[in-house]
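Field reference: sequence -> structure
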Amino acid sequence: MWRSVWRSEAYSLVGYLLCFSILHVLVTAELGIVCTFAGLRHGSYHWQWRSFWVGAASTVYVGLYLFYYQIMHLDMKLFSDDVKYLLWSLLFLVSYMLFTGTTSSLASTLFINLIY
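Structure field:
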């Protein structure tokens, strides 16, 4: 698949990435709204941090996959290369966590403002 993408369809990669990003934002927002609604139905009015962590929970999966990819697929010879990969991965994971958590929290806030 990657060879066909990079051979003659490099511009299609941007379109696929845009579609994936839009779907990812929509799913994260919807999941935050559903979990906030379920919490409100059970009488829990402390929804702010819960909605953030619902969105940011996918960071655990992405982090585990990055670690798995380093162990199984990367053949780095130097320890400094491993540390550099882990630090860049950590930087990506923090920004990814903030993005998904903020998306979920903002969607939940908009939902709360609409229903009250």
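Note: Helices lie at 2-8, 10-41, 48-56, 58-72, 79-115.
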